[in-house]
């Protein structure tokens, strides 16, 4: 028997002492069509036949909460601006870029941390699936109550020292440290980028003092995988093991353009698993999918019932 699973969603809020930006008015969800009745029926059949579902989610499930992504056609960061994320080697080796990164992130964090889960996050939290891996660093699945979850690229709400590995400092505590170091520094921006920062000019940096590790005075960073960095190999091995125990794969809101997520599609192909993709526009994994529906996740998931 199939029934809709529901449970209470715990509330988890982040706050910050820095000034919160006005939420952007731009619509970060690209143009899309509503799912047809046939789409819904086919997706329901896929889910009904899945007993140990492995879910891969990406930025497309969070655009509905107001967080922009990188690659969406017409509305992603790459389409709207010439801004590009900072590469990891820049962050590590260029003191000016390190300073720029933390100034942008400090200004952007109050807005980024205030975003709340949308219906898609809450539905995934309510589904009792085998395992869920997300590429997102926004904590929205955790805020929604997801437990069987791995954050492939880390989480912006945590910080880590690059030099000594210190992890006891929270992102909120770091905001307070930066504020104390820069009591008279301020900057404004009306943008928010996918990974919590904003765009600032060289002039806006001024005498901003970037944070350092309270234990070793080394460089600290959000506990996320930067562009040009590698995902933790132990995590990848764990996820491959979880995938091998699964019987089907669902991709939701991801273009699968980065290898860190696409590798699981290749592995699922080798294991001859059925794959379904729900995403607006093409993805790198379309060729491997038995079912591909180009629509917004929030339009189709509410119609689907999950196996009890």
Automatic annotation (TrEMBL):
GO terms for cellular component: mitochondrial matrix. Residues 30-308 form the Deacetylase sirtuin-type domain. It comes from the Eukaryota. GO terms for molecular function: histone deacetylase activity, NAD-dependent; NAD+ binding. Keywords: NAD, Transferase. The keyword Iron does not apply. This is Deacetylase sirtuin-type domain-containing protein. It comes from Rotaria magnacalcarata.
